[in-house]
Protein: Trimeric intracellular cation channel type A
Organism: Labrus bergylta
Amino acid sequence: MDVLAVLNLGEFPHIFSKMGMFPVFDLAYYIVSILYLKYEPGSVEVSRKSPVASWLCAMLYCFGSYILADIMLGSSPIDYFQHNSHILLASAVWYLIFYCPLNLFYKCVAFLPVKLVLVALKEVVRTRKIAAGVHHAHHAYHHGFLIMVIVGYVKGSGVALISNFEQLLRGVWRPDTNEILNMSFPTKASLYGAILFTLQEAQYLPVSKSTLILVFTLFMATSKVVMTARHSHGSPFALIESWVCHLLFGSPLGGSEEDHHHAAAAPSSPLKTKEELSEGARKRKAKKAE
Amino acid sequence: MDVLAVLNLGEFPHIFSKMGMFPVFDLAYYIVSILYLKYEPGSVEVSRKSPVASWLCAMLYCFGSYILADIMLGSSPIDYFQHNSHILLASAVWYLIFYCPLNLFYKCVAFLPVKLVLVALKEVVRTRKIAAGVHHAHHAYHHGFLIMVIVGYVKGSGVALISNFEQLLRGVWRPDTNEILNMSFPTKASLYGAILFTLQEAQYLPVSKSTLILVFTLFMATSKVVMTARHSHGSPFALIESWVCHLLFGSPLGGSEEDHHHAAAAPSSPLKTKEELSEGARKRKAKKAE
Amino acid sequence: MDVLAVLNLGEFPHIFSKMGMFPVFDLAYYIVSILYLKYEPGSVEVSRKSPVASWLCAMLYCFGSYILADIMLGSSPIDYFQHNSHILLASAVWYLIFYCPLNLFYKCVAFLPVKLVLVALKEVVRTRKIAAGVHHAHHAYHHGFLIMVIVGYVKGSGVALISNFEQLLRGVWRPDTNEILNMSFPTKASLYGAILFTLQEAQYLPVSKSTLILVFTLFMATSKVVMTARHSHGSPFALIESWVCHLLFGSPLGGSEEDHHHAAAAPSSPLKTKEELSEGARKRKAKKAE
């Protein structure tokens, strides 16, 4: 009978939303995050020259969302570092990705089918983080809707929002762009997700939280898997956004699309963000750096 | 009889210092602050390209003082964002100034007579913020005179103190100058005001707080209105400061004056701060950007 | 009999670890710290042009460790500024070093024998700060070993870790390097010290805290005095580190040594940190700036 109850689809969202994230999902999150760090130009050199800086960057990639959310709510920014097992797991992943003999671990996890699974698992964690961030902020500020959106947003976006300072740690400084000026898909989706979860928490949305978590997870995982498989960075929101921005803010129609093309046409443009570099190019750079 | 009591000048400082700031005075504060944001070169382009970044900058301009003071006292930096009505009002002002059809709202509030009134009202809010900041810090640190000065100072200066990082949000980076190296008049006045209010709070100044608020407000409003009307950035403190700095710190006499002239002589100097650009030039730039 | 008890070596570590730091040791700490600030290129000009910026930098040099540790533990970053006597003492030192007639005070404290004594006293304070930081973090996070290391580390390193932002305050921006990428000897020693004190606090190290304080102080004072006397920046850890990094992280053997030589060979390299400039060169620069 218990098996039947688990199979009952009506219960599924609830069970899914209560499922523990540690260690499987968190492991996938750490692997994909540190993989993206290794794609960053120059990060392999930093890992050889200054392991401490490289480790710190890896920690920012893995726990940036907790650090930012703690700052936003006025807690200790390193509060999450009391979870020794999480830190150890992330450090082990960092070590394996950067220093494993023959680059074996990196080759395994960067192998596309494996990576697609990991990317999907990462989005499960991201959605849960957004929901937890909004809930946490709601607890502290009962009517602070904007605070709830901000905390959910930083929990979903993590290191991307402080990428300028993360790069500074590695000796790179690109002030002409940042994640707010040129939002990537995960950052945008985190913002919309944070708004949805805030509406749900304020009971303006007629769905249960577990259903919202399930639906948003499915959307995020599907989008990211498709985008990763296609090496694409087009956003599913592009069309709607383009029209809304045109109506509300007088932005030129299809603006972001055009911007991308311009960036592609100007190959030495310093404005290129990591999100505008195709994954293929990034991988090639990472390989060359080995 | 009540009317008479209100007219009674002895009571006036007390009534003035208890007067509510929301919504009239706060509205003026938001309008003038976001007007200054629109004067910044490039801010109109940012508002077209990334409304989120533009809105964030506007919030920093309006609530930077609260954010900084909260950081200084170890609270949540976004604590003030729980006041939904203030945020909504500031967001509406931001929308009207940047996206109003025909630029109508901007033209109205940038019309000199209107602007002079708004500037005067803004200084009322600034003085109250300094007094509140000092009082708040005094509550937390009874003998922390320096903490009281610092918190009052950041409450008065607001976004100016973090202008480097506010600019970074818009993709601009000018590391060679900052508000501490080249203090503008409002920043300097906030510092002196914070010192005065701290002395008053520590009972070294033989005046009541309400009188001090009234006098300081009158001084600030008069100075800023005159400076705005004359498009001038000369500070009323210049002469005294020049002598005191010469005696205490061996600075060359009339140094700051000369620096201004040098900056004016070198038109392409990257050291030019926004405060050194005349308001006229800034307006022209803002207009061109439309 | 009391004198005998004091002379008893078994009690000495305990007495040494309870000895008050204010005012003698703290004074030495402030003098050496602000001396290093004066060695920084451009700092004398800043002290003439903007005494407020210069004073703020001096405070960061003296109290950066407290500010950083307070931020890490989620307290008010200016919490330490409630100790008016410490602030006054540090401000007096700042004034004397930068503005004393005939540069008399600077010449006295920069005189090598005097400086060696002051440097030794400074290391006494540093060790006590690391121990106090670890202890404080242990109190807040009983099993947060990493948090203990981090807080001890920032307490020992102080302003060095935020040198990029301290420089920004003076209008200098060198993003291509930072203290994490190119650790100087005191920063490295603080990290190792923080690890040792954390192990001791977690009772993995079979020594008493007072003994550890005494031994670590002796090691730090000796090392720094020898290095200052020889104008050297070679680290006593270099050989071990080089081998450990080679084995663990695949860094080229003797890497840091080589890097130093390369930096020395490329005289206009922008990567040169303040720690790579010999003290002699820095002094000469400071003198020229007078």
In short: Chain C touches chain A through 30 residues (CB under 8 Å). Residues 20-249 of chain C form one domain.
